[in-house]
Design goal:
The chain is an alpha/beta fold. It contains 8 helices and 7 strands. Helix 2 packs parallel to helix 3.
């Protein structure tokens, strides 16, 4: 199955007009629409994932493989490394991972411990085109402290179509024009229920 067909299949699973809601989406995968939008730009630089998962890791891996892009994934829970089939590298020390000497196209921040996310987001501020923060709604900022990260970036876009939210940060390119399409917004909003959308 091609990446395009896989992405279309995901979209059809996430948004089903006949159900008129998005309750079928896995809450751990609410960042997938934002990631697939960024991946569709087909920039040549590598992609970084901090925190492996059933949702993001296969999509990032297969997209990068199909487009001859380097994909690097780190996880600090050995069980998750095993569950995602050897695609990700285990680390027991986030300070020791080599993420500072590469310019990344996309850097997904979705790892544990929760408070470590802010450290690595700031660490990537000058060497990632887009830093993607999962779980970014203000009411849970006490867990991640993303509010302390935002001042380090020139641009910010909050993808609020599905909770948990996803925030895209950059010092290089404004993500807003990439994501904001009124027709697309209207379509997504028409399928959302009050339980999963703003």
């Amino acid at each position: 199955m091609s990446v395009v067909h896989y992405t279309e299949k995901i979209t059809k699973t996430v948004v089903r007009p006949e159900q008129n809601n998005m309750n079928k989406i896995d809450l751990c995968g609410t960042h997938i629409p934002a990631l697939t939008k960024l991946l569709s730009l087909n920039n040549p630089e590598p992609v970084l994932e901090l925190g492996a998962g059933y949702n993001s890791t296969p999509i990032l891996y297969w997209n990068c493989k199909a487009n001859n892009r380097k994909f690097v994934s780190y996880e600090n829970y050995k069980d998750w490394c095993d569950k995602v089939g050897g695609i990700t590298t285990f680390t027991d020390n986030w300070d020791m991972i080599d993420i500072d000497n590469t310019f990344w196209d996309i850097a997904l921040i979705d790892h544990r411990p929760a408070l470590r996310r802010k450290t690595d987001a700031v660490r990537l501020k000058n060497n990632a085109r887009f830093v993607v923060l999962h779980d970014s709604e203000p009411e849970i900022d006490r867990f991640y402290h993303y509010s302390r990260v935002y001042k380090h970036f020139k641009y910010r876009y909050d993808f609020k179509n599905i909770k948990p939210y996803t925030t895209i940060l950059s010092n290089f390119e404004d993500p807003t024009p990439i994501f904001y399409d009124q027709r697309e917004q209207d379509l997504i909003n028409s399928y959302c229920s009050d339980d999963c959308c703003e």
